[in-house]
């Protein structure tokens, strides 16, 4: 899609209808975006089967979890933009999630607050030990 074009909003039913009207096309959905990856099948580093697995044909399929499990690079995420044909409409009960939130991976590792409690306990034991030694 070009920057100047408006983003088309699809219901899941409309995506299924689009796919049935264009059986030669390969439509997939990732992070509530709709992509036509027909021209990318031969170029996909994981092979065309990885994309065909989530092709929207007779029923709606969401490839988000699989896409994130593979751990695609930022370059791959940027490349997706040229294949985007629209976005899925939000249902009223869904909360709005920004593009930034959808593309962020959960932080891994030890948080600072996890280390504070043991450090404070160690300091308290050290002080108590010093006080005990000074009284003896």
At the third CATH level, what is the topology name of the domain at 8-88?
Answer: Flavocytochrome B2, Chain A, domain 1
Q: Indicate the overall shape.
A: rod-shaped
- Taken as a percent bin, the fraction of beta residues is 5-15%
CATH class descriptor name of the domain at 8-88: Alpha Beta
Distance between the termini: 79 Å
Query: Strand pairing plus helix content: what structural class?
Result: alpha+beta
Mean pLDDT comes to: 80
Helix content: 40-55%
Largest sheet report: 4 strands, mixed
Low-confidence parts lasting 5 or more residues at pLDDT below 50? none
User: How much is the radius of gyration in Å?
Assistant: 25 Å
CATH superfamily of the domain at 8-88: Cytochrome b5-like heme/steroid binding domain
Helix-strand string: EHEEHHHEHH
Number of strands: 4
Strand order of the largest sheet: 1-4-3-2
Describe the structure.
This is Cytochrome b5 heme-binding domain-containing protein. InterPro entries: Cyt_B5-like_heme/steroid-bd (IPR001199), Cyt_B5-like_heme/steroid_sf (IPR036400), Cyt_B5_heme-BS (IPR018506), Cytochrome_b5 (IPR050668). Belongs to the cytochrome b5 family. Pfam families: Cyt-b5. The chain crosses the membrane at residues 112-132. By secondary structure, the chain is of the alpha+beta class. It has a domain at 8-88: Cytochrome b5-like heme/steroid binding domain (Flavocytochrome B2, Chain A, domain 1, Roll). The protein contains 6 helices and 4 strands. It has helices spanning 12-21, 48-52, 64-70, 74-80, 99-103, 112-135, and strands spanning 9-10, 27-30, 33-36, 84-88. The protein has a 4-stranded mixed beta sheet with strand order 1-4-3-2. Strand 2 (27-30) and strand 3 form a beta hairpin. It starts with 8 loop residues before the first strand and ends with a helix.
């Amino acid at each position: 899609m070009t920057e100047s074009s408006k983003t088309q909003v699809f219901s899941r039913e409309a995506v299924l209808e689009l796919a049935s009207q264009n059986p030669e096309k390969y439509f997939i959905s990732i992070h509530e975006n709709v992509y036509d990856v027909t021209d990318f099948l031969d170029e996909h580093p994981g092979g065309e089967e990885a994309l065909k697995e989530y092709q929207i044909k007779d029923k709606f399929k969401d490839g988000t979890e699989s896409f994130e499990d593979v751990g695609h690079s930022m370059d791959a995420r940027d490349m997706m933009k040229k294949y985007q044909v629209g976005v899925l409409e939000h249902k009223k009960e869904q909360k709005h999630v920004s593009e930034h939130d959808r593309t962020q991976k959960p932080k891994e590792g030890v948080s600072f607050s996890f280390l504070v409690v043991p450090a404070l306990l160690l300091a308290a034991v050290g002080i108590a030990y010093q006080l005990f030694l000074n009284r003896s």
